[in-house]
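Contributing new records

If you add data, match the layout below exactly. Sequence lines come first and carry their own label; structure lines follow with theirs. Keep one chain per record. Anything else will be rejected by the validation script.
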Amino acid sequence: MTKFTYTARHPSTLQKTSGILRAATLEQARALLRGRNLVISQLKEAKPSFWESLNQKKVDANELITFLSLMEGALSSGLSVKETLTILQKQTQNSTLNQVLEDILESIEEGADLSVSFAKHEGVFPSYLSAMIRAGEASGMLTEILRQVTYYMEKVTELRKRVVGMFIYPG
């Protein structure tokens, strides 16, 4: 669910009201406000506050590599994206990844593309991941793209460990 900020007026009293609400899409947020009998003057997606952005957790690189590898394997075996994400969400021990996968599943059930669903969580996933998933969706080669992204991330993680090791013990 996405947070939206709004400013609206009550039609009978013309009293101005504003607040934050959660909805899957902008259209759904608009419908919720109209259901409250409000005349909307402004409605937009809420940006995370400074403190929320500091509090947002990333998923460990090794855990992300494992997740993408399992996702690629499940999709290669013929499972649908929804089935794959449901299984992986139930299996994950990481609370951040679990919550993100739940949100991605909701987005997909509402008709959003996988890449768009991942793009909503660029604070958790690397920024290039949603672009690579979009390329995989467009080309019909999502499993191959996931395999390549997993390989790339493994190499980057390995290189990062080696560089950190050299700084710790120069020799």
